[in-house]
Design brief:
One of its GO terms (molecular function) is catalytic activity. Keywords: Membrane, Signal, Transmembrane, Transmembrane helix. Residues 411-474 form the PAS domain. The structure is a single chain. This protein has 973 residues and is of the alpha+beta class. It has 33 helices and 35 strands. Strands 25, 26, 27, 28, 29, 30, 31, 32, 33, 34 and 35 form an 11-stranded mixed β-sheet that branches. Strands 3-2-5-10-7-8 form a 6-stranded antiparallel β-sheet, with no helix packed on it. Helix 7 (252-274) runs parallel beside helix 10 and helix 18 (580-587) packs antiparallel against helix 19.
């Protein structure tokens, strides 16, 4: 940047001296020309624009009437006009001899020029008539300039007239010279002009060479710029056309337009690369690309407009490009980019020289060597500065590249060391299998000391494959996809031992060795053995070695598909051991495990490949008998049952026997779903248990027992869905105090379930399924939580109620979490303990006596009361009543409903009442369905009655509305 003031000063000085050349000369004479060798005619010329059709004769005749004008500059420039410009000057020959001079019009791009000479001796003579289309060789003087000879008679006065037509600005660099100057000066000018242009060509070629060697695109863009700038300068000045395209001078105008557009586009791209605009200033980069497109389009569009319009378009393009280049350079320079200052200096110099060139062509600056050749000089200077910057960059990049190569070499040495000492085996082969390279791990894996020994012993890697087809698959896959990962194959070591390897392979089609396969491998023999063991464990029961449930279901599913497609039939046996729990409970699980292993061996011996046996879980087994149904399958089932029945298990001197219940189901094309088949088989097995255990139950479509059990199983999912979606409802049934009708409300809670369509499901359909499949604790929790919540939101009813009886199932009593759950509900909803009476079924209470007593003690101490439900229908042992501290005995309805017609039932009711009274318990009679039964019960002394004869079950809200104040039985009614 520090060079700019000096540059501006030099330009101002040169311009000043150029302007000083414009001095008013003396009247032109031959002696003056001979003395100076060259005279600029600008100050001697007179000019006028006339219509194009005006000829020389008209001009001569009306010469005095024409308003001729003079120039105030030695090298004037005239504006564009559609008319013709006429010039004239006078010259005197005072010598006594004839003189020869030459008129040199140094504006090669004029379209048409005609020169006339008038004197008193010869009159008017046309001495030159040339247009721009005329080839150089066809002109009087083969030169880009328009040169006409003037022959001046002795002691004569001669007038020279020049007619010029041009589609653009008209420069008037017109000189009068003698022959010696014409010869020497033209040669000198041609030499220096040729040298400057040759320098441009050399710079362009040098830039292209540097680009080819260094792959730096900046040099390519600069080379394109230099080449097209060379063409533009040649076409715009017109001087070199006699050397470059002498036969077609007229193309110079269009050529300058096209070349300037391409040159400006390429210099914008060069600036973008040189200043790194794409990375540093994205918005300037976008402007650069936009200008490139505009300049290229303008270079083509300019071919279809007039020359004057081309000049104006070139000025606009040059201005836009200059603003962009200088703006970009200055902006990036402010970002401390070290080469940006050089860029600004160079393109400021080129911009100023171009501005001087344009200013001269428009007549703003006088024409001289500086204006004509500053473009070439500035271009050369810019190239030197920019090349130095680019070469510094290349040196730096080379240094970095060398450093990177050294690092790469170091890394290569490291990688080679890793390659040689890697745990994995690495190798390279040709496509046909010839080994090229292999590391130590590969040689060790195969059983050789080194690669030389391996290559000497094995010519082709195909020899290592146990199955040669595997390598063909591997190679084809590598060719198709380029890479293969984890391809497993079996190889053979040098000692003949087979191993499994996992291969990663990459196909490289072009290497110094040709197409090769580069691979690595590891020994996975141990993994294969482990996988095989895991596959066995995944498909087999770890205790017995039989198939497990998952594998058995997979095989069973395939059998069902076979039945559907091939119409074959099979048989499924579902087996559940009887009395196995006794062994576990009395001798421990270790004894139970040994029993299962011994019994499994017996079952396998009996089957003897007649069927597929699996342990489904616990003491349950499944057997698939293929292609046998009916009696044949039943015989196999009987043999299995008999084998279990005959089996004796001895443990610590004790002998145990077990039985087995077997469900038999035929598989045919009507069976489609494995879950349905397993469910039916399981149900058939339970039907065998229900009928006495240790027997075979064959399922048929008319089997009511299995259907009922199957329906129960289907209810399980519906119950779970109802629990999840809150499709249960509570009802209440009045428990009437027959001896003291005025007492507060006493009722029992009943549970109801609705299906997906909000239809009521009978309790007898879902409650047995819930009891059988362990869902009663969840239902009991739902009842307690929802009733306590409802009671909390109805405080008036809570005051009115005396007792609410809530049924608890046996599994709920045995569940450890139930007791805490109920206690939390009492605490959360603030329900008085004395309002709640828990009903316990007699049979369940006796079966789980310890759990029942613990539960009763906990809640009785808090104030709850208890009722023993269905008393008399179960074990009917009065002895248990001494150990069950309950408050109420609910007499089973089977005795109550027929007591008026069956004296034994009445006697049982009375007996239960008397025993309960003796112990201190109150009695509740169920199934009170008439006034007569109610009266008879009251006469016996039964405390409470419950049944349809008293009140039917109803929703809690309806119950409160009906019995919220007084029942119809109160007040003695």
């Amino acid at each position: 940047m520090r060079f700019l003031p000096k540059l501006f000063f030099a330009i101002i000085v040169l311009t000043f001296f150029s302007w000083q050349n414009v001095a008013t000369a003396q009247p032109l004479s031959v002696e003056q020309v001979k003395q100076n060798k060259k005279v600029t005619l600008g100050q001697y010329l007179r000019y006028r624009t006339l219509e194009s059709q005006v000829d020389i004769q008209t001009v001569i005749e009306r010469f005095e009437l024409i308003d001729w004008q003079s120039f105030d500059k030695p090298l004037p420039v005239l504006p564009h006009t559609d008319q013709a410009y006429w010039f004239y000057f006078d010259i005197k020959n005072n010598a006594s001899l004839q003189q020869a001079l030459y008129l040199d019009y140094q504006f090669p791009l004029v379209e048409h020029i005609t020169i006339y000479q008038q004197d008193s001796i010869n009159g008017v003579v046309e001495i030159l008539d040339v247009n721009l289309d005329q080839a150089i060789e066809e002109r009087m003087f083969p030169s880009a300039d328009f040169i006409a000879p003037l022959t001046l008679s002795a002691n004569s006065h001669t007038r020279v007239l020049v007619r010029v037509e041009n589609d653009g600005l008209v420069q008037v660099p017109m000189y009068l010279v003698d022959q010696l100057w014409l010869t020497n000066d033209k040669s000198t000018n041609s030499f220096w002009l040729g040298a400057g242009l040759a320098l441009l060509v050399v710079l362009s070629l040098f830039s292209i060479l540097v680009f080819i060697l260094n792959k730096d695109v900046s040099f390519l863009y600069y080379a394109i710029f230099s080449c097209f700038f060379f063409v533009y300068y040649s076409a715009a000045t017109g001087y070199p056309i006699e050397f470059l395209w002498p036969d077609f001078p007229a193309i110079s105008q269009n050529l300058s337009m096209f070349a300037l557009g391409i040159a400006l586009a390429s210099v914008c791209l060069f600036a973008s690369e040189f200043l790194h605009l794409r990375e540093k200033v994205r918005w300037l980069y976008k402007i650069a690309l936009t200008l490139c497109v505009l300049f290229v389009l303008a270079s083509f569009m300019g071919l279809f407009v007039s020359h004057y319009q081309q000049i104006m378009l070139q000025v606009v393009m040059f201005a836009l490009c200059s603003v962009f280049l200088l703006t970009s350079g200055v902006y990036v320079a402010t970002r401390k980019y070290r080469d940006a200052g050089r860029f600004v200096v160079c393109f400021s110099l080129i911009t100023l020289s171009c501005a001087l060139f344009a200013a001269n062509r428009f007549g703003l600056v006088p024409r001289n060597l500086f204006t004509e050749y500053s473009l070439l000089v500035s271009q050369f200077f810019a190239f030197i500065v920019i090349f130095e910057a680019l070469s510094s960059r290349i040196k730096k990049e080379r240094s970095q590249r060398l450093k990177a190569q050294l690092e790469a070499l170091h890394h290569y040495e490291q990688f080679y060391d890793i390659y040689e000492n890697a745990v994995e085996g690495h190798f390279t082969t040709t496509v046909d299998g010839r080994l090229l390279r292999a590391n130590k791990a590969f040689c060790d894996l195969i059983g050789y000391m080194n690669f030389e020994e391996l290559a000497h012993s094995i010519e082709n890697i195909l020899e290592l494959y146990v199955s040669p087809d595997e390598r063909e698959k591997l190679v084809n896959r590598a060719k198709e996809f380029g890479r293969v990962y984890g391809f497993e194959a079996q190889w053979r070591r040098t000692n003949g031992k087979k191993i499994w390897v996992s291969i990663n392979l990459r196909f490289e089609p072009k290497t110094p060795d040709g197409a090769v396969l580069i691979g690595s491998l590891i020994d996975i023999s141990q993994k294969k053995r482990s996988d095989k063991q895991l596959q066995f464990l995944a498909a087999h029961d770890s205790l017995t070695g039989l198939l497990n449930r998952r594998e058995f279901e997979r095989i069973l599913n395939e059998a069902l598909i076979e039945c559907s497609q091939s119409k074959v039939k099979h048989t499924l046996l579902y087996m559940d051991l009887d009395q196995f729990k006794v062994v576990n409970d009395t001798c421990g699980h270790k004894a139970g495990d040994i029993l299962l292993r011994q019994l499994t061996d017996e079952l396998k011996d009996v089957l003897n490949k007649q069927g597929i046996i699996a342990r489904l879980g616990g003491d349950e087994f499944g057997v698939l008998v293929k292609n046998k149904v009916g009696d044949e399958a039943f015989v196999i089932a009987f043999q299995l049952k008999q084998a279990v029945q005959d089996f004796r298990f001895v443990w610590e001197g004790r002998v145990f026997t077990v039985g087995v219940s077997i469900g038999l189901v035929e598989l045919n094309e009507e069976n489609h779903f494995i879950d349905e088949v397993m469910s039916i088989a399981d149900t058939a097995c339970y039907a065998a248990k229900d009928k006495g255990r240790n027997r075979i139950h064959a399922y048929t479509e008319s089997d009511e027992d299995v259907k009922n059990r199957h329906n129960e199983m289907q209810q399980v999912s519906k119950i779970n869905d109802a629990l999840a979606n809150d499709r249960f409802a509570l009802q209440a049934q009045l428990i009437y105090n027959m001896q003291h009708p005025a007492e507060s409300l006493h009722y029992e809670l009943l549970i109801r379930m609705y299906d997906e369509e909000d239809k009521l499901v009978p309790p007898g359909l879902f409650l047995p399924a819930a009891e059988r499949y362990g869902l009663m604790p969840s239902i009991d929790k739902w009842v307690i939580n929802h009733y306590f919540s409802w009671l909390q939101h109805n405080p008036l009813h809570m005051q009115r109620v005396a007792k609410c009886a809530i049924n608890l199932s046996g599994p709920s009593l045995a569940e450890e979490s139930m007791q805490n759950y109920i206690l939390d509900c009492f605490e959360h909803y603030k329900i008085p303990y004395n309002k709640i009476c828990f009903e316990i079924t007699e049979s369940m209470a006796i079966q789980q006596l310890d759990a029942t007593l613990s539960f009763i003690k906990c809640f009785r101490d808090l104030g709850c009361s208890f009722a023993l439900d269905d008393f008399g229908s179960g074990f009917s042992s009065y002895g248990y009543l001494k150990n069950l501290p309950v408050d109420y005995l609910k007499i089973d309805g089977s005795f109550v409903k027929d007591m008026l017609v069956d004296p034994i039932d009445r006697a049982m009711v009375k007996s239960i009442y008397e025993v309960a009274k003796a112990i201190g318990m109150e009695t509740v009679a169920e199934f009170v369905e008439s006034e007569d039964i109610l009266a008879d019960l009251r006469s016996i002394g039964i405390n409470y009655g419950q049944g349809y004869g008293i009140a039917k079950p109803m929703g809690l809200d309806d119950f409160v509305k009906k019995f919220g104040r007084k029942s119809r039985f109160e007040m003695g009614s």
